[in-house]
Design brief:
The protein is mainly alpha-helical. Helix content is about 55%, strand content about 0%. Keywords: Signal.
Length: about 525
Amino acid sequence: MRIDHVVLAGFLLTAAPLAAQAPLSSIDWLNAPEQAPQLAPRATAQPAPQRREEPPTASEVRVPEVETMELGAPTVEAVGLLPMQVTGLPITLWQDSANATLIDLIGAVEPAVPAMSALLHTLLLAEANPPRGASRGPSFLAARLDRLLAQGVVDPAEALVERAQVDTAQLFERRFDIALLTGTVQPACEALMEDPTLSPDLGKRIFCMARNDAYDVALTTLDTARALESVTERDADLLLHFLDPALAEESPAPRHPVRPSVLEFRLFEAIGEPLSTTALPRAFAHVDLNGDTGWKAQLDAAERLARVGAISENRLLGIYSLRRRSASGGIWDRVEAMQDFEAALDAGRPAQIGPALEDVWAQMRSARLLVPFSQLFGARLAEVELSGRAATLAWRAALMSEAYEDAAATLPTDDPERAFLAGIATGSAPERVPRGLPHAEAIAAAFRGAEPPEELQTQLDEGRLGEVILRAMALFSSGAAGNGDDLTDALALFRTVGLEDTARRAALQLILLEQEGVRQ
């Protein structure tokens, strides 16, 4: 189950079950709504290898019973971009959990591999009834927006807040920051001018006054705010430079803050003192995606966001392909390696593909972008006759691609490591565990029919599905750090609730990325 960069056309199309389709992230689905990830049937204790295009053979889906209810006029907390027909997640996903508990879990979970990032994005964008206690304010939606921004998933966050169609002070702060990041701040400014109670931040009001050409009013408001000490001296100085270009020529700009607000970031840009986004939170990288700050900054931003699934791998490839490199070293060598590899692959000449693959693989490994690379090219590489190191890289890429199950059918079973990976890719219980393969024992236990921990099973029985999935994601991160029991428990839970594709992809990514010495 994956998710990527957003185009909201054709949004509410119903999708076929996951068992019949290749896995997609939530962000990918927003780009291609004819496909969608869904919950798969529960894995049996000893699952037989099964092709995804075949009908599921499990006898039950062990998730809390799906209640059917008319949302009518849904609460703001229930808003989402992905309906349950797409995610396969019940509309009761959150409703039996405590609001404060979910907010803590959403803020704390740290995805260990791209498959976990994809699952997190799906949960955050899912349409579902709000949790207990959410009626006291849109805190749950605010927490979802905050986490999306922390992940750098800016466009879907913007679509989510727009779909809410509610401006409380709590949500308006997020709406305004998102609008500043995407360059669509005028509607937010108009809303603030109509209702100043939406934000206590005088800096925002002064900024919006200036955008509406009310410079005299803005200057008067700033003078009053300074007199009342309603703005800090630094912010007042920055706003004055923004409002009075002549002053900017006479006095130095304020010192660059270490952790600027989004408004401060845009104000420094407006006075000709742009801040680099490299050391800023991930959401700021979105500003550089349009290329206005140069191709280098655009490349850096695209890599940073693709690394966590905040933009699609196809968008990353498009930015890599914009032009020929103009320098050498670092990211420029990666651009050249990617372009040379794609040209060799398109030409269909194995003698060129092998060396080009080895070069680009090393570059993508150093950038921690092996999974996006594999999603782009893994299926095609599985069809190329290669030898030696290049052949090994090709099947690794195939196992980290959407075609991982098809690729597994071509792996030679006389090699214990490849036989083990093929078994995981098809959901089979491994017969043997190769020595030295990272996390193999813990993963094998999960695919041999391990049950979820009793505590999580109890929470499942209480209908707290979304909460349990978040807890399992935390267990997976602990397992990836070396706690084998936690890893087994996490994968067993995913399989129990029908997230079979997530379990397989996460297990494969964890093993293969550990072998390469990199993780997300």
